[in-house]
Amino acid sequence: MSKSLSVQQYDVIVVGMGPAGASAAYALSLHGLSVLAFDKQTHPRYKVCGGGLSARIAKILPSDFFSIVEKTVRRVQFTYGPQHSFIIESPEPIAYMVMRQHFDHWLVDKARQAGTVIHENESVVEIRDVEDGVEVFTKLKCYRSHIVIGADGVMSVVAQQSFPGRSLRKIPALESEVLGDWVHPFQENPTALISLQAAQKGYGWIFPKRQGLSLGVGEFVKGAKRPKQSFRDFMSHEPMLAGMKIPVPLGYQIPIAAAQDYRKAWAGSLVRGKSMLVGDAGHLVDPLLGEGIYYAVRSGQLAAKSIAAMLSNPASCRLSDYEMMVDNEFGSEFRVAGRLGTIIYGLPRSVHRWAGQRFPGSYQRVLRRYCEVLQGTETYQSLWAKILQRLHWPFVQKM
Ligand SMILES: Cc1cc2nc3c(=O)[nH]c(=O)nc-3n(C[C@H](O)[C@H](O)[C@H](O)COP(=O)(O)OP(=O)(O)OC[C@H]3O[C@@H](n4cnc5c(N)ncnc54)[C@H](O)[C@@H]3O)c2cc1C
């Protein structure tokens, strides 16, 4: 389409208003930029997701975030079958539980209140780089901006069109919600359960919510058995779910960050031309746990920061600074998380049963430190260094 006066120009167009897009749009609008955002659905909308947020997310969200928290988890049960169970408790929150329709809607409202123009129920179908910006086509119209942010999730149209040939790993996951008028012990004393036995090369989870439980399985390593079978086995063998009628789960993919893809540099993987990728569209998901919401919010904020810097100071700032920011904050963390995932999901029985039985004290300490990673007082890198130190491996410094 040729440039015409009827095409309205914005500083930034955001495609997708999940946590990544809504956070980016909110931050850009607070910077005083003109922002147009699209979502193919209308919020509040259901999203297949466990809705578990690591507690460190509270540091990067607006302070009224607690109004949409369903349960605050200070107790995590790690199990490999009923006989092999460890419970970690902390006086400080380890995780917050939300329902995604409420969490995402709350973030979208923040962006709207800050000045973002939001078109819901309008899918973006095509992106074209033009001389002084980008043309974004929906089924209805063409729009123009200086920059486009792809925040359109795992099946991102922006990634497919602006980053051709990009093929990164996605893992299958299943999720169901059990609602009822009963009160489950995990709701009474808010507890999250992580079962390494639930999936052959992944884990199963039970997360407490205000009106029930969210349950699911994810398979993190190649060659796992089909997740449907894992889900059925988990539901029928997990004692904490005994006697419950579990609705048929919904499936979706998780685009985990594969350590090897980012080993050298992130150059060109998140910024090309005038297009940037955030959240799931950029495969910014922790490869150990499949946690994506924290990284979606944070990458949206980092993208906004680099755009605001570039537009106000084009001589010394570039869009690709965003890739450096992401690498600095997440790169090494994802590399270590990927390594831990390969060990834990490659040999779950040995790791949990053997280490748990032979070295229960040390094993419990590692699990506690892992909860501290979720709380933001440890990092994967410091956790890994401590594990290697205990094993007396001298090449700790290289990690
Ligand atoms: C079963 C399962 C359980 C999970 N559990 C957790 C968990 O407990 N904790 C956690 O941290 N992470 C979890 N995740 C991962 C988490 O859901 C994602 O990482 C997170 O949603 C990423 O946010 P996002 O904003 O990048 O993308 P999304 O949340 O997918 O949002 C993308 C948005 O873009 C819109 N969109 C898509 N295409 C277009 C288009 N062409 N035009 C306009 N709009 C479009 C969509 O409607 C959507 O609103 C889970 C994932 C799965 C599959």
Annotate the secondary structure layout.
Elements: E1 9-15, H1 19-30, E2 35-39, E3 52-54, E4 71-73, E5 75-79, E6 85-89, E7 95-97, H2 100-114, E8 117-120, E9 124-130, E10 133-138, E11 142-150, H3 157-162, E12 171-179, H4 185-188, E13 191-195, E14 202-209, E15 212-219, H5 227-237, E16 250-254, E17 271-272, E18 275-277, H6 293-312, H7 321-346, H8 348-358, H9 360-375, H10 380-390
Parallel strand pairs: 1-2, 1-11, 2-8, 5-13, 11-18
Antiparallel strand pairs: 3-7, 4-7, 5-6, 9-10, 10-11, 12-15, 12-16, 13-14, 14-15, 17-18
The structure holds flavin-adenine dinucleotide.
Flavin-adenine dinucleotide binds at residues 15-21, 38-41, 47-52, 123-124, 151-153, 157, 173, 175, 216, 252, 254, 279-281, 285, 290-294, 296.
Protein architecture, described:
With 399 residues, this protein is an alpha/beta fold. It folds into three domains: 183 residues, FAD/NAD(P)-binding domain, CATH 3.50.50.60; 108 residues, D-Amino Acid Oxidase, Chain A, domain 2, CATH 3.30.9.10; 40 residues, no CATH class. Helices cover 33% and strands 24% of the residues. It is built from ten helices and 18 strands. The strands form three sheets. Strands 1, 2, 8, 9, 10, 11, 17 and 18 form an eight-stranded mixed beta sheet that branches. The chain has a seven-stranded mixed beta sheet with strand order 6-5-13-14-15-12-16, sandwiched between helices. Helix 1 packs parallel to helix 2 and helix 1 packs parallel to helix 6. The longest helix has 26 residues. The C terminus is likely disordered. The site of flavin-adenine dinucleotide has 38 residues, from helix 1, strand 2, strand 12, strand 16 and helix 6.
